[in-house]
C-alpha cells in the first residue's frame, strides 16, 4: 500500500527571549562560576577523600600528605582519642632509602597540645592524662591493605607514652625502626597518636635514628628505640637498653658502634671556675664518667665502644641540670671502597687510653679525632713496630738532628729508634710527602695509607701531584708503652697539636719562653743535648718553643717543679751539665713552675683544660 506524500512545511516561530538587565547578566555569570567551582571542589574532595591534613617530610623531597584512616587523622587533630595514619608506597620507600644510607631510620612526629578550657581543668586535676605514639604494622591491615579497626587501648602494643601534665606545649617524638638486613619487612605501614586532651599532629619526618633527649632546640626532642618507653621530661637520664636493636653492637671495618652526644649548659652559674669545679657524674650501666662543665666546651662526644655497658640505662647522677642534650646516634660509614679505615672516631682524649682494643676497626691501630678540635688526629698503635712503619721515617725527616729534611731508605734507617710517641703538624707532614713525590722516593704501604688518611680528614688537599697543608696535626702513642707513661705522653703530644693549630697560643708560648728564668731555659736546652735518643734540633726555634711548652704541661701544675728536679738528678744530665743541674736542684725548679703557671692560666681561660690533663671526660 502506497502512502500519500505528505507536504509538510515548518513554520518559523518568532519567540522572543526576555532581555536581561546588566545586573541580571552579572548575577547569572556569578551563579555559573559558583556552580563550576562547586563541581571542581567536589572532584578535588573526592580525589582527596582519604588524604590527611598532616604532611610528611622525606629528606629533600617535597612534603607529601599522609593517608588518613579516620576523621581525626584527616583533620590532623585528635581530641580524647586516636588518629591513625597510613604511609604511601613512596613514603615507605624513603624509610628504606634512609636506612640504607645511614644504617638506621626513625619517624619523628611533632605534637602540639591545645587543650580546651575544660581539659585545662583536667590537666590540673589528679586524673590521668596521657599521650601515646606507636607504629601500625601488617597485623593492622588485611592482605588487601584495608585497615582493621581494633579496640583500644591495646596493652600489648609497643609504644611511646608520656604524662601530658608534664609535657611542653609543642614537642617532637621520634620512634626508631628495628635494624635488620631485610629492613623492608620491618618498615611500618603507618602510625597512630593518642591524646587525652586535644592534640594537633603538626607534621612527621623520616630521619636517621637518634635516641635520647635534646632540649637545646626551640622544640624539645625525645627519641626512642624500637622498644618504646616512657618520656621523662625531667631529663635526668635515659634508658638506652633498646638501642642495641637499632645500632651496631660491635665495631669493625664494615660498621661502627654509635656515639653519645652531650650538649652542656651555657648558664654561667653552672660552669666550672678556678675556685669551684662543676663536674657532671654520668653513670652508664654502672660505669662512672666525670665530665667537666667548662666555659670553653659546649659539646662532648663519647663513643659507645669506649664504655663497658653502653646499651643500658644512663643516669646523670650529679649536676644533671648542666646537660641539655643526651643523644645516642649512629656514625658515618667508616671504610673506604677499598676497605681502608680513613674516618676517625670522634672522642674526648680522656677516653682514648682505656679504649678497648677489641673494638678497634683494624688489628694494628685505631684513629681518633679530638671532638673539640677538628683535624687533630690521634693514632693508637698495637706496638712500636706498627708505629715505626707509620711514623719513623717521618720522625727523622721532621725532627732528628743531623737528618732533618732527608728521606732515609729502609737500609739507612736500619734499627735506629724513632720515638715512643709522635706529634706532627699538617705542614711538616706535607713537606715529607711532597719531598717523596719530588724525588720519586718509594714509601711503604703504611706511609701511603697515612697520606690517604690525612687527605680524607682535611689536613691535606690535593694540589696536582703534591699536597697542600691545612690546619691540624696528629699524635701517635702505642699500646706497648706502659700505662703510666701513656698518660703523660698523650698529654705531652696533645699539647703539641694545639700549638700547631693556634697562632695565639704559639705567640704566648714564645713570650713565656723568652721571659721566664733564663738559667732554667739554659738547663732545658742542655737536657735536650744530653739525651741522644731525643735528637732534637736545638737550632730550630719553633721546635724548641713547642717542646719547652709540652715538657712543662705534660704533668699537673703541682708536679712541674718536682719533674724538672728529677731530670736534674739524672746521672747523664749531671755529667753533661753539672752546674745547671745543681741550679735546678737548688731553686727546686721554681723557674719552670712560674712558666707553668702562666701557661696553665692561658689554656684554662681559652680551652678549659689544664697542665697534665687535656681531657674533659675522666673515668
Quick structural overview:
The protein is an alpha+beta fold.
Described by its quaternary structure, the protein is: single chain
Rg computed from alpha carbons, rounded to a whole number of angstroms: 35 Å
* Corresponding CATH architecture of the largest domain: Sandwich
CATH class of the largest domain: Mainly Beta
What helical percentage do the residues reach? Answer: 25-40%
- Give the count of structural domains: 4
Tell me the number of strands: 28
What is the mean predicted local confidence, pLDDT? Answer: 90
Describe the protein.
With 619 residues, the chain is of the alpha+beta class. It has 4 domains: 51-233, Sandwich (Jelly Rolls), CATH 2.60.120; 250-335, no CATH class; 343-501, no CATH class; 503-619, no CATH class. It contains 16 helices and 28 strands. It is elongated. The model is unreliable at 1-13 and 41-47 (pLDDT under 50).
What descriptors fit this protein?
alpha+beta, 32% helix, disordered N terminus, 4 domains, 619 residues, five-stranded antiparallel beta sheet, elongated, 16-stranded mixed beta sheet, 16 helices, Jelly Rolls
Secondary structure layout:
Blueprint: H1 22-47, E1 51-58, E2 64-68, H2 71-75, E3 77-78, E4 81-86, H3 89-102, E5 106-113, H4 117-123, E6 130-136, E7 159-163, E8 170-176, E9 190-195, E10 199-207, E11 210-214, E12 221-224, E13 229-230, E14 237-239, E15 259-264, E16 279-284, E17 287-292, E18 299-303, E19 313-318, E20 323-329, E21 345-347, E22 365-370, E23 376-381, H5 384-398, H6 410-413, E24 422-425, H7 426-439, H8 445-456, E25 460-463, E26 466-469, E27 473-478, H9 483-501, H10 503-515, H11 518-530, H12 541-553, H13 560-568, H14 571-576, H15 578-587, H16 590-607, E28 617-618
Parallel strand pairs: 1-10, 7-13, 8-12, 21-22, 23-27
Antiparallel strand pairs: 1-2, 2-4, 3-10, 4-9, 5-8, 5-10, 6-7, 6-9, 11-12, 11-20, 14-19, 15-18, 15-20, 16-17, 16-19, 17-28, 22-23, 24-27, 25-26
Helix pairs in contact: 9-12, 10-12, 10-16, 11-15, 13-15
